[in-house]
């Protein structure tokens, strides 16, 4: 069991952190509470890709960097400390690229993969719908074959990157009990999107995709017919860990801010850092963060070894994303009234953290996955 990054990983993180502080932080600072415009999102993906963020998971023979998940996770955690919005943008783009690399035809890969990896195109993955959240099989969006084309209808909702996406990997119903993936190209297939006004992670797009009237050639199907949901489910273990990494980054920023403030703020004639109950808050924040890190990186290490580790990923996700809400809430408490003022930026950690207990399986769904594994009985379909 090894809890320390290797020398190579430590050197990569060091160079990455210097780059983040010098080049990325100043560019994203103005967009902490407003959506990063598409042109800048592309520039950021182009800038982070060569470091392994946004292009890391795809194998080298497909044009990616072929990074292991632990190394990728270390890089994402640092990025999320600086900007959870950019980390989200990149990990969703990378997820779409990985699906394309895994099951795309040579023609689909040739056309889109290198451009996705280079940040020239932005990708997203659309499963959820207004009526199908935790119960993904309830989705109603469908594709009906009509000669050489499919006609798509329906609506996708709560889709990360939706309103800036050039390419959508959409899962829709193709038969009564069959779901398939399609590759939708905004320029060619003319789907409409709408951004959703939300609580936190406001630099990162989250929106609806309207599919009515979308006609795609049959060659736009991604992967075999009827395999869309199964293929997407394969990615859930990974995405549960990477959404948790956003939480680790937010938690670290909240803890760092709280320690700095506690040392500087004076009440009752001494820095509040010297008051025992403030130390209790800080100690609990740091302990929750440490436990979350161990769980998330253990899951990533297991994924690198291969095999299915659904329960570990569900434990890591449900624990780490609830923990960061508590950590960010304590950060507000340490800052007193300054914690709730927008101008200090501490309340933003809490709003950002609060977003993470919902995607990639809510806390409740992840607990049901843990229960199913331990008890051998599924409490949900
Ligand atoms: C930041 C963010 C990013 C997202 N990105 C994407 C994306 O890129 N692509 C995509 O397809 N989707 C995305 N989603 C959507 C996300 O996957 C869904 O929001 C999630 O699956 C939950 O669905 P829902 O919101 O409809 O809630 P519901 O499923 O309606 O759940 C509502 C409540 O009921 C509980 N609940 C539901 N069923 C059960 C049960 N059987 N037992 C106990 N409790 C239950 C839930 O835990 C929750 O508390 C994103 C969501 C967020 C917030």
TrEMBL record:
Q: Which residues form the Acyl-CoA dehydrogenase/oxidase N-terminal domain?
A: 6-120
List the InterPro entries hit by this protein, alphabetically.
Acyl-CoA_DH_CS, Acyl-CoA_Oxase/DH_mid-dom, Acyl-CoA_Oxase/DH_mid-dom_sf, AcylCo_DH-like_C, AcylCo_DH/oxidase_C, AcylCoA_DH/ox_N, AcylCoA_DH/ox_N_sf, AcylCoA_DH/oxidase_NM_dom_sf
The superkingdom listed in its UniProt entry is Bacteria
User: Which cofactor does the UniProt annotation name?
Assistant: FAD
Domain Acyl-CoA dehydrogenase/oxidase C-terminal stretches: 226-375
Q: Which GO terms describe its molecular function?
A: acyl-CoA dehydrogenase activity; flavin adenine dinucleotide binding
- Keywords annotated in UniProt: FAD, Flavoprotein, Oxidoreductase
Domain annotation Acyl-CoA oxidase/dehydrogenase middle: ranges:
124-214
PROSITE patterns in the record: ACYL_COA_DH_1
List the PANTHER family: ACYL-COA DEHYDROGENASE, ISOVALERYL-COA DEHYDROGENASE, MITOCHONDRIAL-RELATED
Q: Which family does it belong to?
A: Belongs to the acyl-CoA dehydrogenase family.
Can you name this protein? Answer: Acyl-CoA/acyl-ACP dehydrogenase
Organism of derivation: Marinimicrococcus flavescens
């Amino acid at each position: 069991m090894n809890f320390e990054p290797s020398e190579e990983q430590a050197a990569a993180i060091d160079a990455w952190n210097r780059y983040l502080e010098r080049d990325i932080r100043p560019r994203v600072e103005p967009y902490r509470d407003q959506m990063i415009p598409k042109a800048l999102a592309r520039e950021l993906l182009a800038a982070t890709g060569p470091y392994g963020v946004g292009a890391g998971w795809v194998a080298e023979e497909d044009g990616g960097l072929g990074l292991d998940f632990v190394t990728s996770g270390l890089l994402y955690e640092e990025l999320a400390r600086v900007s959870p919005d950019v980390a989200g943008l990149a990990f969703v783009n990378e997820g779409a690229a990985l699906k394309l690399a895994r099951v795309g035809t040579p023609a689909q890969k040739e056309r889109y993969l290198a451009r996705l990896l280079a940040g020239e195109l932005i990708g997203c993955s659309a499963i959820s719908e207004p009526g199908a959240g935790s119960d993904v099989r309830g989705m109603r969006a469908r594709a009906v074959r009509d000669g050489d084309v499919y006609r798509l209808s329906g609506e996708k909702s709560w889709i990360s990157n939706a309103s800036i996406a050039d390419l959508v990997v959409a899962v829709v119903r193709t038969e009564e009990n069959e779901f398939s993936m399609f590759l939708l190209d905004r320029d060619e297939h003319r789907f409409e999107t709408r951004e959703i006004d939300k609580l936190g992670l406001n630099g990162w797009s989250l929106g609806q995709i309207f599919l009515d009237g979308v006609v795609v050639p049959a060659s736009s199907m991604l992967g075999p017919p009827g395999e869309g949901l199964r293929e997407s489910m394969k990615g859930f273990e990974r995405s549960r860990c990477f959404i948790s990494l956003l939480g680790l980054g937010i938690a670290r920023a909240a803890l760092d801010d709280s320690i700095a403030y506690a040392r500087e703020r004076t009440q009752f004639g001494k820095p509040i850092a010297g008051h025992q109950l403030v130390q209790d808050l800080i100690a609990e924040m740091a302990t929750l963060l440490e436990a979350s890190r161990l769980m998330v990186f253990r899951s990533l290490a297991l994924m690198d070894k291969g095999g299915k580790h659904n329960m570990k990923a569900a434990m890591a996700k449900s624990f780490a994303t609830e923990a960061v809400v508590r950590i960010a809430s304590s950060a507000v408490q340490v800052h007193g009234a300054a914690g709730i003022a927008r101008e200090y930026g501490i309340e933003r950690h809490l709003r950002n953290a609060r977003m993470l207990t919902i995607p990639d399986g809510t806390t409740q769904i992840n607990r049901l996955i843990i229960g199913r594994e331990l008890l051998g009985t599924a409490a949900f379909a």
